[in-house]
Amino acid sequence: MVNGLANLPQVVLGPLAGRPEEDWYAAPAGKWSAAQIVQHLALALDYSSRTFAARRAHAPMRRRRRTLRQIVSYLMVFRVGWVPGRWRAPELSRPAAHPAPAEVERQFREGLDRLAGVARELLPGRGADLFVKHPVLGDLTLPEWLRFHDWHCAHHARQIRARLAR
Q1: Which CATH number fits domain 2-165: 3.40.1410.10, 1.20.120.450, 1.10.260.40, 1.20.1260.10?
Q2: Which residues pair with 140 in a beta bridge?
Q3: Tens digits of per-residue pLDDT, 74-90?
């Protein structure tokens, strides 16, 4: 599972490699630019990795009961690979208005490295008894967060490629 993280720089950053800086900022009106998307992904990676790291010594936990909306959303993302409805990114993962490409690339790579380190440290021993809440999907284990980040990066990489194709 941790090995899947190694592919994400190519998936997300590969389409932007060697592109002029203005390509990082191209976006339809009211939508995020590629630079903002990369920063959003970096912030999400940072949130889950830091929260799991902070809980590494926590006693075994149990998943809180999910709401019907969380159950449906979880199934749609993890089984179908589709986002039900329009999600609004939580405040902590919203990007700056005009982030610098080099800085967001660094943040993204560091977030991936941090998450991979936490996963190597905690898995498999804490794979089923340590949780971090996702704002839409509810409590997720570290393996579930790894799957989410894989899906989330692929989802946003499609948006990046679409912006670059214009």
Answers
A1: 1.20.120.450
A2: 132
A3: 999 999 988 766 778 88
